[in-house]
Write a structure and sequence with these properties.
With about 150 residues, this protein is of the alpha+beta class. Helices cover about 35% and strands about 25% of the residues. Strands 3-2-1-4-5 form a five-stranded antiparallel beta sheet. Strand 2 and strand 3 form a beta hairpin.
């Protein structure tokens, strides 16, 4: 099943697993050496939550609850004081779409990308909301196309 997952999402899964394992192992070693039970418990909690995040991400991808967008980036504008940015894409059918993404990934204008976004794009009542109140999409991974 892992071979059916797109490579950018596989990288995200692998990075999350490695980061959780590194925090858990460092915290366990440091907690045992310093005999600090609180640090050991907190490290175990971070490891458990990291595992839950990996399992949640895997189930999201396995169920196909993600969307793939392809196109040329026209603009990538950061929203001030928020951990989000507005990405304007021109799709293969010359359709222009705006996506509000969470995180700090930076996309170069004029470059073609394939984005993997969690969930599906429902343009319901959020279209009448101001931009700063619209929900953001989670980026599962991306790849630059030639």
């Amino acid at each position: 099943m892992i071979s059916q997952i797109p490579h950018p999402i596989q990288r995200t899964l692998l990075k999350t697993i490695l980061l959780g394992a590194a925090v858990l192992s460092f915290g366990a070693i440091w907690g045992i050496v310093s005999q600090d039970k609180v640090f050991l418990i907190l490290s175990a909690a971070v490891g458990i939550l990291g595992g839950a995040k990996v399992i949640s991400l895997y189930h999201t991808v396995k169920a196909g609850r993600y969307e793939t967008l392809e196109g040329f980036v026209l603009s990538d504008r950061a929203v001030p004081l928020r951990n989000r940015h507005v990405l304007t894409l021109e799709g293969p059918d010359q359709e222009i779409s705006k996506v509000i993404l969470a995180g700090k990934a930076v996309f170069r204008p004029g470059t073609e990308y394939r984005l993997y976004l969690a969930g599906n794009n429902e343009q319901g009542p959020t279209t009448v909301l101001p931009e700063y109140l619209q929900p953001v999409r989670s980026l599962l991974g991306y790849e630059e196309l030639d």
